[in-house]
């Protein structure tokens, strides 16, 4: 299987409702809450791509383009955008949707780097899983 086919198979989508316990005093989602969800989606994406133990080693630029208000739905989409020998990079995009209309827009985008590790927690080569 090619990297492109494995990338397509590993795209990860998660939906969440924005409830009061996830918002700040401006009634918008806490940035830290959004970043935690993004890292989780990135981890799942990296693991689904490699089927190996993966750990987050960095997050690159995270752009908060639109506030995410209470009472909306968010979709987090993770996709592998680069594969190296022992590491890979995942882009996570967060879309915000109104609950009672079809209005949807990009709210946040960021990327996360992961390293594959062996049983001793040392970096190891990423090898595509067999079909």
Overview of the structural elements:
GO terms for molecular function: long-chain fatty acyl-CoA hydrolase activity. This is Acyl-CoA thioesterase. It comes from Chitinophaga agrisoli. InterPro entries: Cytosol_ACT, HOTDOG_ACOT, HotDog_dom_sf, Thioestr_dom. It holds the Pfam family 4HBT. The protein has 131 residues and is of the alpha+beta class. It has a single domain, classed as Hotdog Thioesterase (Thiol Ester Dehydrase, Chain A), CATH 3.10.129.10. Helices cover 21% and strands 43% of the residues. The chain contains two helices and five strands. Strands 1-3-4-5-2 form a five-stranded antiparallel β-sheet. Strand 3 and strand 4 form a beta hairpin. Helix 1 packs across helix 2. The protein is elongated, with a radius of gyration of 16 Å. The mean pLDDT is 95.
**CATH architectural group:** Roll
- Strands of the largest sheet, in order across it? 1-3-4-5-2
How many H/I helical runs? 2
What do we call the CATH homologous superfamily?
Answer: Hotdog Thioesterase
CATH third-level topology: Thiol Ester Dehydrase, Chain A
Count of extended strands = 5
Protein name: Acyl-CoA thioesterase
GO molecular function, one term: long-chain fatty acyl-CoA hydrolase activity
Keywords: Hydrolase
Domain HotDog ACOT-type: 8-120
Structure summarized in a few sentences:
By secondary structure, this protein is of the alpha+beta class.
Features:
single chain; 131 residues; alpha+beta; Thiol Ester Dehydrase, Chain A; five-stranded antiparallel sheet; 2 helices; 5 strands; 21% helix; Thioestr_dom
């Amino acid at each position: 299987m090619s990297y492109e086919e494995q990338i397509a198979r590993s795209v990860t989508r998660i939906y969440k409702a924005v409830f009061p316990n996830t918002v700040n005093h401006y009634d918008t989602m806490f940035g830290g809450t959004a970043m935690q969800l993004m890292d989780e989606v990135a981890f799942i994406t990296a693991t689904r791509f490699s089927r190996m133990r993966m750990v987050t080693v960095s997050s690159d630029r995270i752009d908060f383009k639109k506030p995410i208000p209470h009472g909306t739905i968010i979709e987090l989409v993770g996709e592998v955008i680069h594969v190296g020998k022992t590491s890979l990079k995942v882009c996570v995009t967060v879309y915000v949707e109104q609950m009672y209309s079809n209005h949807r827009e990009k709210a946040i985008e960021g990327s996360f780097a992961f390293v594959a590790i062996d049983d001793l927690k040392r970096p190891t080569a990423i090898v595509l899983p067999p079909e």
